[in-house]
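== Sequence, structure tokens ==
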Amino acid sequence: MIGFYDYAVIAVFVVFMAGIGVYFRNVCKNTSDFLRGGGSMSWYLSGASNFMVTFSAWTFVGCAGKIYKTGTLLVMLFAFNAVAYLLIALFFAHRFRRMRVITPIDAVRRRFGKGSEQVYAWYNTIISFIFGGLGLYTLSIFLAPILGMSVNASIWIMGLLITFLAVTGGSWAVAASDFVQALIVMSITVVAAVLVLRMPEVGGISGFFEKIPSYHFNWSETLSPQIVVCWLIAIFFNQIFSAINLTAGASRFLFVKSDRDARKSALLVAFGFVVGPLFWFIPPMAASFVIPDIAAEFPYLRNPEEASYVAICMRVFPAGLTGLLACGIFAATMSSVNTSLNQISGITGRNIYLALLRPQADDRELLLFARIATVVLGVLMILLGIWFAEVSKLPLFELTLLLAGLISIPLTMPLVLGIFVRKTPQWAAWSTILVGLLAAYLVKYQLPVQKIATVLGIPRKLTEQEAGDLQFSLMIFLVAGISCIWFLGSQLFAGTNGKEREQEVDAFFQDMETPVTEDSDEHENTDSMQFRMLGMLCLAYGALTLLGVFIPNGAVGRICFLFIGGVALITGGLLYFNYRRRIGHEK
């Protein structure tokens, strides 16, 4: 449980985040502004937003629970994320920006036709909706041991705040809040790692490595080596497929103003996944030996190890800092759910409402529809989060990967292969989804995992964790493999496309080879606005955080608030200085 100062910090954060939506309410003049910032965002804003979208409270709950039990094995997941974004920076980010579309489903239409557009519009909306609800559920698990609030109440409060921010300021507010939230998350997790290492029970960096259970580094102590290898290969391909595709992966680069900004945005994300885990993993790994019986502290949680990050931080944080940690973890979830809301409101507006119901709708009507859809979908997402809280029994880590294997891989494979293979029939994409879903069902419910383990040289009965890891690996291998064979085989029927469709596909690929430059007339020059508004937000957040120095803590507590507030103030000062310099040059 937390005290008065922690609640005060959380209250200030909630008001501040709601204020961002109001702050950007007049920036969105059309649907392009509302859904993708008019394609004029700078690399640092887009990159910070991309980085925040790629993880959520799941990192500090489900992932932390897995780290508590298995140790550094999860390092590879984030390492593969870094590899994926490095590949994107080198080969794909600029091409994704060149697609010249407003929503990622527009790219599906250009590449695969109107039939696939509708399949992906509905399917992508459902998936974003499911993962948004899962994000709210994950956040509620994190907040429960901190706030002493019921799971359902926390889902409602945070869900309504996220919806308010998305509907008032659109993509600009979402990206700006992501930028500020990235500062919160990175600075508070650095502080958390340092404070945990200072614990007498940990004994600094040397004590940390001495006391960590051996299985945290020697993975074969708890898992069969064959399963470790299969899982690592599966995770590698899963992270690559998730990042390099025409919808979820490409959508993060539709916002930037140029090819150069797209590449730099991807590099910033890759850098974040190299640096971030160095600090994120320390608290749950330390908790494995500082709090070995974590179930005794959280008997009301189905999977108490998922509270390991919170549990150890609450032991060392001074007054007010636990509230700031709650804000940081909430910020991580807020960014991903906000982005999901913004994307599915755009998809339902442009690719369903406009394409099927109101082809004559003007931009003003579409913007109104997008705002209404955001509210409706936000409330439905809250209700889904409550449903997850009522029925889910799986640990969050396994639940998230299971959903990825069951519903994301069938969706993703045509969008990965479609970047490289041009000559396919119009039905190639949506038929691959059906084949992939059937394969996922068979792997999940019909594949004899224990017998396959025997074939791999594991004669004994698998543990629950080993069975889940092997099943996930087989799902990735088989679903991706079968989907790939089907999609590539469809090339035999590529001649069934009409001449008009072939010309549309050729135009799509031609656009992907045509550069978008900073001085292009395809977007407005909003650099000064971004420097000014982001600078003011960071300065305001930094000033508010520095008020924590006056909380009656010891020297360490005051230094923590000074560091976190100082990071925001320095960042805001640099941004605002650039704004003033740019204005001076323009005069």
Remarks:
- The CA atoms of residues 135 and 333 lie 6 Å apart.
- The radius of gyration is 24 Å.
